Hints:
The complex is a heterodimer of chains A (424) and B (360).
Chain A: E1 3-4, E2 9-12, E3 16-22, E4 33-35, E5 39-44, E6 47-52, E7 63-67, E8 70-76, H1 93-192, H2 200-232, E9 240-244, H3 260-275, H4 281-284, H5 294-307, H6 310-323, H7 328-340, H8 344-357, H9 366-382, H10 386-399, H11 404-423
Chain B: E1 12-19, E2 23-29, E3 35-41, E4 47-55, E5 58-67, E6 71-75, E7 86-90, E8 94-98, E9 108-111, E10 117-123, E11 134-139, E12 144-147, E13 157-161, E14 170-176, E15 185-190, E16 194-199, E17 204-210, E18 215-220, E19 229-234, E20 238-248, E21 252-259, E22 265-271, E23 274-282, E24 286-293, E25 299-301, E26 307-309, E27 313-321, E28 327-332, E29 339-344, E30 348-354
Antiparallel strand pairs in B: 1-30, 2-3, 3-4, 4-5, 6-7, 7-8, 8-9, 10-11, 11-12, 12-13, 14-15, 15-16, 16-17, 18-19, 19-20, 20-21, 22-23, 23-24, 24-27, 25-26, 28-29, 29-30
Protein name (chain A): Dynein axonemal assembly factor 4
Domain CS (chain A): 3-87
TPR repeats (chain A): 370-403
Amino acid sequence: MPVWLREHSWRQTLGAVYLSLPLRGARATPANIFCSEQYLKVSIPPFLFEAILYAPIDDTNSTAKIGNGNIFFTLYKKEPAMWDSLTLANAGKEKLQYLRENAVLKAQEKAKEETEAKKIAKQEHKKCALEATMKLEEAQRKRIEDLKEKERQKVAKELEFWKNQQKDADKYKSVQKKGELHQEKEPLKERKNETMSKTRIPNEGTSKIRLKSTKGCHGSSSIFSQNLKEERLPAPRAAATIEVTFTPRVFPTALRESRVAEEEEWLHKQAEARRIINSDLSELEDLKEEEKNPDWLKDKGNKMFAMGNYLGAVNAYNLAVRLNNKLPLLYLNRAACHLKLRNLHKAIEDSSKALELLTPPVPDNKNARVKAHVRRGTAFCQLELYAEGLQDYEAALKIDPGNINIEKDAEKIRHLIQETMQSS
Amino acid sequence: MSVAAGPERPQVVSHVQQALNYTVFDCKWVPRSARLLCLGSAARGTGLIQLYELHGARLELLREIEKPKPIKCGTFGATSLQQRYLATGDFDGNLNVWNLEAPEIPVYSVKGHKEIINSIDGVGGLGIGEGAPEIVTGSRDGTVKVWDPRQNDTPVANMEPVQGESKRDCWTVAFGNAYNQEERVVCAGYDNGDIKLFDLKTMSLRWETNIKNGVCSVEFDRKDINMNKLVATSLEGKFHVFDMRTQHPTKGFASVSEKAQKSTIWQVRHLPQNRDIFMTSGGSGSLHLWKYEYPAQRLKKDSEGSEMGVAGSVSLLQNVTLSTQPISSLDWSPDKKGLCVCGAFDQTVRVLIVTKLNNI
């Protein structure tokens, strides 16, 4: 149950009502006061003051002053008239409730309207601000454009002036040139025609002398300076050749041509292949350390091949492959051995495996690929599968176009194919 | 990379734009005049030389000369100021020197190379530098040849790959170090990133290096002084500035490099009136104006006591984008500071004026 505050005092004038409400020690904030047109409420729990006003007031302009344990209301009447009392006397419960609700609703509506109005005002302000900034920027831009235009015009003027200067200088020079040409001819003629009769020269001389005198010192000095300059110019250089070498690269193409990505892939693959160790160690336990190294085994195999011990070489390569089956060179060399041993199918198998491992095709593994194709081609031919053999030889030729041996062999195979076709 | 203050920065003002109906490969100012030359290739596969004169805000065509083969490059570097003969290199490997007043028959002609002459430079003429006038040409056949217009048919110097070596295209050549009658140096840039410096007095290779990307353009800051700086530009937007005053026995020349544009830098040209300012033109149609600042000390001693150079720094003064196509050729006017012409692959030639260069 709220505690009603009833000790209020009021006085009025024609236009306003002054209401003083002591708060009995409670502290009031603006949020505790609720006022509408005909309803006034102060609620500071547990205290409550409520008044249905005698007549409507102008609640927007009315004020409330909080201070000294007191709220002092200044309520401006809507219609200037003297009130009989502050509140409506016979206010029934229902009327009270109705009024209260009404008041609340009205207040809410007012609040809504106010927010709407605020929003609209804000938008207007924003638009205004935007227009103002746009104008400012336009002005700025125009200023810069004007500056630029001025520069341009100034510069154009200067250019014209300079050009006219040049024109004048040119004219002067062209006249001078003609004068010089005449004057050049003069000393030349004098030198050449020494044997000629002297009578002719003075005649020409006199007419030229006139020109000479008008042009004055400037003209004559130029001939002399030109002659001197010609003498001062050194003879053409003795011809020589300088040999030039170009920067070598791992990949012999310029950065823009290199197929770096593929080459990286190839290098990566090689590195991977080195690292594989097939862990079938049960049988290999009785081997010496060095015999477990695929590279050492490859070398051994190569040596045996060179000495003609093909079976031994094959054994070495077999062991190496068991240890590391990703090294293309092992298969390549083993293919060569099989060729020599006439195990042609095995040779084909091994060359194919080698080619598989030699992807991606890069200049680095060019030689290996050529060898693989040639060996496989040879095996095919020895099996009399000439068409396949020719295919391999042509592939080899594509990789290495300058190789004469492959060319010759390819030719031979072509002949053989023609012969067999003719005979069958 | 620092940028100069706003209103004081040099501005690049586009003065005249001229649309052409052929591909222009090179454009050059005619010395001592307001005239410029455009060299290129017409659609029907013939070469064109057009001579324009600057008239107010437009270019007036004075003369058009057609030649049987497309022309790639040209220079006035090796002729005297009175004669002003143009030396050109064409797509067929011919080097011709033309008198523009009488262009039917060349003054000098030689089939210098087996393939297109990519770049040409001249020294000893125009009152700049001393010594005999010489022309150097660099070609796709991998050779660099130096010609003297007084000697027919054979070059006075020939830089060719060793027998059996695979050749790399030579993309650019430049003369330098021509400060007296004997000294002269040729710098050549190749498509694999090699830069080679040939000394013509001793007829030997003086220095070489590789900058990884193909070298599009090299230029010394001045041809007629003791070599001071060399700028080399390359593909992928990089350029290197080498300090050429001090050569270390193993490390060569000190350099600073800058990656400026996202695309190829086609040309570099130093301002004739100030050798520390240069402009680079790029494949994205942009021009960048740079200034080189020298370091506090240009020399220092390394651990063994031999001297090595110290490279300075480069700062961007201004940049501007003029076209969507690469700007392949650029030339400063030797007579008016800040006036330059550039030719782009969108078949336009533009005359530009760079302002406020006096304050730099």
